[in-house]
Design brief:
Elements: H1 3-43, H2 49-91, H3 98-101
Helix pairs in contact: 1-2
Length: 116
């Protein structure tokens, strides 16, 4: 398979990965909205053992959902950076630089920064 054809395939994968990152980011906002709504309803309930148990369950689910969402975003971003490096290597110049040059998304959710 020629480099040009491989680059086309990688660019299709790259487009899919970037759309997955956007979708998972939207999912994170949906989880946040659900959590705020659930906690607001819970705050209006009388305080008892059951209320505290439900509050703890909501917080635990929020932490788990947030961790999983950020983890999947990070994995997709890592693959996107790999594709960018591969395409740049095959082209012989720095054509794709978005994920490589942005350090803000490299240390997501309790992980050390990733090297280039």
């Amino acid at each position: 398979m020629q480099d040009e054809e491989k680059v086309r395939i990688l660019l299709v994968e790259y487009a899919g990965i970037t759309s997955e990152i956007v979708a998972r980011t939207g999912h994170g906002f949906q989880v946040s909205g659900f959590t705020v709504t659930a906690l607001a309803l819970l705050a209006s309930a009388p305080i008892c053992g059951r209320t505290i148990l439900v509050f703890g369950a909501i917080v635990a689910l929020l932490v788990f959902a947030t961790f999983m969402t950020f983890r999947h975003i990070q994995l997709a971003a890592m693959r996107a950076r790999e594709i960018e490096r591969d395409v740049n290597r095959r082209a012989g110049e720095r054509l794709m630089t978005w994920g490589i040059s942005l350090p803000a998304h490299r240390a997501i959710f309790l992980r050390p920064p990733l090297s280039n």
